[in-house]
Automatic annotation (TrEMBL):
UniProt-recorded name of the protein: Phenylalanine--tRNA ligase
Segments forming domain Phenylalanine-tRNA ligase class II N-terminal: 24-90
GO biological process, one term: phenylalanyl-tRNA aminoacylation
Gene Ontology terms for molecular function: ATP binding; catalytic activity, acting on a protein; phenylalanine-tRNA ligase activity; transferase activity; tRNA binding
GO CC annotations on file: cytoplasm
Database matches in InterPro entries: aa-tRNA-synth_II/BPL/LPL, Phe-tRNA_ligase_II_N, Phenylalanyl-tRNA_Synthase, tRNA-bd_arm
Domain of life: Bacteria
Record-listed E.C. numbers: 6.1.1.20
Keywords: Aminoacyl-tRNA synthetase, ATP-binding, Cytoplasm, Ligase, Nucleotide-binding, Protein biosynthesis
Organism lineage string: Bacteria, Bacillati, Bacillota, Bacilli, Lactobacillales
Domain (Phenylalanyl-tRNA synthetase) ranges: 94-216
Length: 218
């Protein structure tokens, strides 16, 4: 049998083994058996030393063609098996989107928030605007614009937490009223506002008088 015939035989047998391989391990084993350093194709190439100078290029070119064909078949089969493994895994992990989702428990607004919302709806139905002011307020708007100058005795009842001498935690949501008056265009009608929110008083904290509570002023 000539070397070319032997190469053809090895090619056909190798392609058949590659095609029948059903796992990657078998494909890799075919590669080692055929294309490895101790494989039959390498053995055939060693026999080229006995060929004439005219035959060697032809057999060498044919040997390279056989190796390339086998390597291409190995790569193709390996890709097929890898894709099949991925498809099998995807099928096993398939998500049934028709199943009902898990119900996520939902909370509900705090009772104080519910009361504020109901009162806001009531006053808005009567034409009031809802003004949500800042809890950190200027002394000027919290007291002086409400006719409570610095020496007014009513301030003692509303002693509060000062951040600076002119900035404090508001003692009443009435501080929103002078700001609203400054910004309102009275040519468009009267001003009706409701100011809900948290206020602060530096009182003795007990069951009846907390240091912060909710007020609604209109």
């Amino acid at each position: 049998m000539s070397l070319q015939d032997r190469l053809t035989e090895l090619r056909d047998q190798g392609l058949a083994d590659i095609k029948s391989a059903d796992v990657l391990k078998k494909v890799n084993q075919v590669k080692v058996d055929l294309l490895g350093k101790k494989g039959p194709i390498t053995e055939v190439l060693r026999g080229m030393r006995d060929l004439s100078p005219e035959e060697r290029p032809k057999v060498g070119a044919y040997a390279n063609e056989v190796r390339d064909r086998i390597q291409a078949a190995i790569d193709e089969r390996r890709e097929e098996l890898e894709q099949a493994a991925v498809n099998e895994q995807l099928a096993a992990e398939k998500l049934d989107v028709t199943l009902p989702g898990r119900e996520v428990p939902q909370g509900q607004p705090h009772v104080i928030t519910q009361i504020i919302t109901e009162l806001e709806d009531l006053f808005m139905g009567m034409g009031y605007q809802i003004v949500d002011g800042d809890e950190v307020e200027e002394d000027y708007y919290n007291f002086e614009r409400l006719n409570l100058p610095k020496d007014h005795p009513a301030r003692d009842m509303q002693d509060t937490f000062y951040i600076t001498k002119d900035v404090l935690l508001r003692t009443q949501t009435s501080a929103d009223q002078p700001r609203s008056l400054e910004n309102h265009d009275f040519s468009k009608g009267p001003l009706k506002v409701l100011s809900p929110g948290r206020v602060y008083r530096r009182d003795t904290d007990d069951a009846t008088i907390p240091i912060n509570f909710i007020k609604l002023k209109g």
